[in-house]
Amino acid sequence: MVQHQFKVTTKWEDGRESVGKLSGDILNEQISIPAGLGGNGTGTNPDELLVSAASSCYIISLAAVLERSGFTNIDIQQSTIGLAIFENAKFKMDTITHYPEINVDTTQKEQLKKKLPKLLKIADNNCMISNSIRGNVDVKIEPILK
């Protein structure tokens, strides 16, 4: 079994209106409760980080799957939306939907159309974040071919 550790440190002082600090190997960001949830909205927040992790993991997995399948000149622009709900007196991330806009070499577009449903599923199954949240968060993929 291969193992890898990802270490971050966080610091928080005072109550819910405060601003904390998140640091990792590369990340160095302020954190707070989102303004839409009654916080001050400074820096990023755990919800945005979860959606960012899912989005960045999926786009990297998708690019790798396309490359391994022989596609060239890969260009993917992706937006991702996380839908949080308040249910049973708790907030939770309910759905994360990826909207990848995929462009490959012109001569390969028809081939991609045929293989795309299978490749999207393989990319999702190769994404560590998707695998980690599966069963708790519904992950959807709505592709657009350019």
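That was protein one. Protein two is written in the same sequence-then-structure order:
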Amino acid sequence: MPPLADILEEYELLDGDDRYRLLIDLGQQLDAMPDALKTDATRVRGCSASVWVYPTTTADGRLHFLADSNAAITKGIVALVLAAVQDRPAAEVAGTDIAAELAPFELSRQLSANRTQGVPNMIELIRTTAERLAG
């Protein structure tokens, strides 16, 4: 997955349908999430589509999230959120203002409220997971 700054650079050059395509492409770049991890415990509440996020840690203590959604654009939004924090140390993720990192994308202006309503819940899940693991 490209860095968030690179995604934003491309995103700003696009409009409407091309932005949707970019989000869908991002979603397709997510690591495959095994169906066994798509449980009620990993489901993000408040999303109009089904979204699952499962945290893992790498050998060097970085957070790596597996995620999936049953809707292509929503999966792209998930990928965008994860691009802000993926493969970073838990303490760094806990201190990241993910909403501020995503603000330049103006998702609430580009997408329907249904598509973005679960984003705050996803951000909160990532933040609390990172805080817990940062200890």
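Residues 4-134 form a domain with the Sufe protein. Chain: A fold (CATH 3.90.1010.10). Keep this in mind for the problem set.
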